[in-house]
Structure formats: structure tokens, C-alpha cells
Design goal:
Elements: H1 4-7, H2 10-30, H3 35-51, H4 55-77, H5 83-96, H6 101-132, H7 146-160, H8 168-182
Helix pairs in contact: 2-3, 2-8, 3-5, 4-5, 5-8, 6-7, 6-8
């Protein structure tokens, strides 16, 4: 198990949080999770394991991550999940370790369900507001900054068209919650 002293190191936790926040932000805005973020997560995970002298746990975590990658690749081939999500989940399994991988996957699934319900509700609201106005005149509240307004409009358009969910948000939430429980 990963030592609590290593997890309490603020620099490592900040780096992990920043990587997952970047993955979630990319997924929300572009619906793409860059490979560099997944590789950086794996690099930090390997560094954590090596620094803690946990070679066997690293080997088991890489094995579990490989199995997870193979299983999720089948879902990706069936176009049920995105390739970036597959890589981020596999990298996260290395980060949280094989012992906590089921907790991570369960938390991610719960967060994904909440995300799905939120998008269903937002879709109903966006469709109702869109129908009340002429096409192209839908505008959120004028108090929003320009970028948030543009992002909101893009999300409304994606929801109306039935676009994919930004599941990277749920993956990031699951990983951060699992790492938070590890440090306790």
C-alpha cells in the first residue's frame, strides 16, 4: 500500500490534482483527453511507487492497468467509450494501485451516473429554452463572462445533438476521491 507520508507531500498531491483538473477541463471543452496527461499521470504514479520502494505493488498495478486497458479497449472498439477515457482510466489504475482499483472504478461509475443525470436534466432545460427562442438567439444570463457563455452555448448545442459526455470529469473525480481515501 502507498505510504501516507508520501501521499501527504503537498507537491505530489498538487501535481496529481493539476493533472486531473487539466484532463477534466480538456474533456469538457474539447471532448479530448491528451495523451500527454495520461502519460504524466503514469510518470507520477511510477515515481510515487519507486520513491516508496514499492516495486511489487508497482508491478501489480501495471498488470491491473494492462488488464483494464485491454477490457476497455474492447468497449472503445465498439464505440461505447472514448480512447482518451480508456487511457486515463488505465493511467489512474496505476496511480491508485491495484488494491484500490475497484474503489476507483466504483467511484468513477457513480460520478459518471451523476454526470449523466445532470446532462439529461440540462438537455431538457436546453431543449425547452431553445424551443422558446428562434434558432441562434439562445443566450444564457448576461452576467456570465464571455468564455463561460461560449462554453455554455457549446454544451447546450452538444446536449441538444446528443453528443458524448465528458466522462473525464467522472474519472478525475473517482481518482481524486480514491487518492483522498488512501491518505486517511
Amino acid at each position: 500500500m502507498i505510504s501516507a507520508a508520501l501521499l501527504s507531500d503537498g507537491t505530489v498531491l498538487l501535481a496529481i490534482f493539476a493533472l486531473y483538473a487539466a484532463a477534466a477541463a480538456y474533456d469538457v471543452t474539447l471532448r479530448v483527453i491528451p495523451d500527454s496527461i495520461s502519460m504524466a499521470i503514469v510518470a507520477v504514479a511510477v515515481g510515487r511507487h519507486l520513491y516508496g520502494g514499492q516495486m511489487m505493488e508497482l508491478a501489480v498495478a501495471v498488470g491491473a492497468s494492462s488488464l483494464c486497458f485491454l477490457a476497455l479497449s474492447l468497449l472503445c472498439a465498439a464505440r461505447l467509450i472514448g480512447g482518451g477515457d480508456v487511457k486515463l482510466i488505465s493511467a489512474s489504475v496505476v496511480m491508485v494501485g491495484a488494491i484500490n482499483s475497484f474503489h476507483f472504478l466504483y467511484t468513477t461509475l457513480l460520478a459518471g451516473g451523476v454526470l449523466s443525470l445532470g446532462y439529461l436534466a440540462a438537455g431538457c432545460i436546453a431543449r425547452a429554452r431553445y424551443r422558446r427562442t428562434r434558432p441562434g438567439t439562445f443566450r444564457p444570463a448576461p452576467v456570465d463572462p464571455l468564455r463561460l457563455r461560449l462554453m455554455w452555448r457549446a454544451e447546450c448545442r452538444r446536449v441538444r445533438r446528443g453528443g458524448p459526455l465528458p466522462y473525464g470529469v467522472a474519472i478525475a473525480f473517482g481518482a481524486i476521491v480514491t487518492l483522498g481515501f488512501q491518505s486517511m
